[in-house]
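TOKENISED FOLD:
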Amino acid sequence: MDFLELRAVVPGPRAYHAGVDPATGEQVRSTVYSGYLCLARRAGFRGAVRLDDLQEITVFLPDSLPYPQPPLALSVELSVRRFRSTGNPGAVHIGACDERVEVADDPRGGEHRWLRLTFRTAVYSHDLVEINYRVSVQSR
């Protein structure tokens, strides 16, 4: 059983930018998704948590456009929006690491491919953590 549970994925505004690839002269379009994830301590968790324990979090972006073709480029930025600790704040590590974004098959078995965000976060002494995300997708 994981220590943190996903309580919400809250999408923010989605932005579009059009441009030209300087190497090829072809038109490219960038889509920027933003929002935040709310993670909270699971009430039924029983077990020990060490200072260096990390938990992997994986979510599909709820406002993702379908991507039938692989994008030209993908990038992700994560930051801490809010944090509440239950223990000694001097020993607590917060934030995300090993973040990656990819286009993945629909988990429900549909024909579309969606953006999936994966990262790891520390869990020691966490009661609540909200992580901002910004995902940029470049496509033709």
The mean pLDDT is 87. Strands lie at 4-11, 15-20, 27-41, 54-60, 73-85, 96-105, 113-122, 126-139. Residues 87 and 125 are 5 Å apart (CA to CA).
